[in-house]
Design the sequence.
């Protein structure tokens, strides 16, 4: 038995929209295998990125309303492009599953994603499932991370513990015990945000080198020297010591935070170069991940798989591998498909679960009172 869904993701890195078309094949024993049929990246234009960044700092009700509908159109366009690449008839697609874009996230106090799903349904002519996080929050959870259900049921190992570390704008990790089969006990699965992914690295690059969106190939970071006192000071923030479940977002790592980060680096080292600032951001991210693993992952881990935009940065990959040594650290794509598609595939899977009235949250990840069917359906 198989179903084809479209998955849409706009992450906190503000890079753009990821759209996938994926077929989920369910075996007789209930095991599910994802087959990636298409993967499209639609980078945000400078004006689009600026509007989203401004909205995440605060905007008028009129601008939020306009941007919600505009983003719905951008998401619909990305879905249409992915469907064309996949060569699948629309009549064979069960639904579109859209994460949308997080404007504000307050954990158990509330969460807000927009990218109007009614616009997606109207433009694509397909049932659209969206608003995945709010039901978990209503059940007392953090509303994040939600990817762990896909990690556990699609990408776990039967013989060893595994970590799946995502490096979007925010970093988050899924801690997977050995799991086998669709009826595996998920009570030991844990997941939580580790802190920044690439938001500080990218933010510093955009501030220091106008015109650059990010540190392509880690060129700047690899030429710099990290400033250890700045890293140590920032890691003393009580948030990093707080036990899971926990989540964070751009509301913590704001433009003001990044400006202060650059200023701290300049003050801490005479002659501090732009490259030193970017290297410090890279190593701060890597150290925050290592600290989370040290404090909250006592199990022996077989391997660590990196996904998300930050996994393309060789400087960040190298720093994470060094801080997590002797664990084997490698890109998600070495074992599965392109890691940049992973979160969009995960939300397509959440849509697949929604259609079957099956829970999409993992209590050990979000802290919700129990399993809940996630998402709201917008008929075509």
Sequence:
């Amino acid at each position: 038995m198989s179903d084809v869904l479209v998955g849409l993701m706009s992450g906190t890195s503000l890079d753009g929209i990821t759209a996938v078309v994926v077929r989920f094949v369910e075996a007789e024993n209930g095991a599910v295998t994802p087959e990636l049929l298409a993967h499209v990246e639609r980078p945000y234009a400078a004006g689009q990125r600026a509007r989203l960044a401004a909205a995440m700092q605060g905007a008028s009700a009129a601008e939020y309303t306009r941007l919600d509908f505009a983003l719905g159109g951008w998401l619909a366009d990305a879905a249409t492009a992915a469907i064309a690449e996949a060569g699948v008839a629309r009549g064979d697609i069960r639904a579109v599953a859209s994460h949308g874009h997080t404007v504000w996230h307050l954990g158990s106090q509330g969460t807000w994603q927009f990218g109007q799903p009614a616009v997606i349904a109207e433009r694509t002519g397909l049932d659209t499932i969206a608003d995945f996080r709010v039901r978990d929050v209503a059940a007392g959870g953090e509303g994040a991370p939600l990817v762990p259900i896909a990690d556990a049921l699609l990408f776990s190992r039967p013989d060893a513990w595994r970590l799946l570390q995502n490096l979007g704008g925010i970093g988050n990790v899924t801690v997977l015990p050995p799991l086998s089969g669709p009826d595996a006990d998920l009570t030991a699965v844990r997941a939580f945000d580790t802190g920044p992914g690439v938001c500080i690295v990218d933010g510093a690059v955009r501030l220091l080198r106008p015109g650059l969106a990010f540190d392509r190939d880690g060129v700047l970071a690899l030429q710099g020297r990290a400033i250890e006192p700045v890293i140590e000071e920032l890691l003393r923030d009580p948030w990093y010591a707080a036990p899971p479940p926990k989540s964070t977002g751009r509301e913590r790592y704001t433009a003001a935070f990044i400006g202060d980060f650059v200023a701290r680096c300049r003050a801490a080292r005479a002659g501090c170069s732009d490259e030193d600032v970017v290297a410090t951001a890279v190593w701060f991210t890597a150290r925050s991940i290592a600290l989370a693993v040290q404090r909250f992952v006592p199990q022996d881990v077989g391997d660590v798989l990196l996904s998300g935009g930050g996994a393309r940065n060789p400087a960040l990959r190298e720093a994470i591998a060094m801080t997590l040594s002797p664990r084997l650290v490698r890109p998600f794509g070495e074992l599965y498909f392109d890691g940049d598609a992973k979160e969009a595939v995960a939300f397509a899977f959440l849509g697949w679960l929604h259609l079957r009235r099956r829970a999409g949250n993992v209590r050990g990840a979000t802290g919700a009172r129990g399993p809940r069917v996630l998402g709201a359906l917008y008929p075509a």
Observations:
- The mean pLDDT is 94.
- Residues 148 and 227 are 34 Å apart (CA to CA).
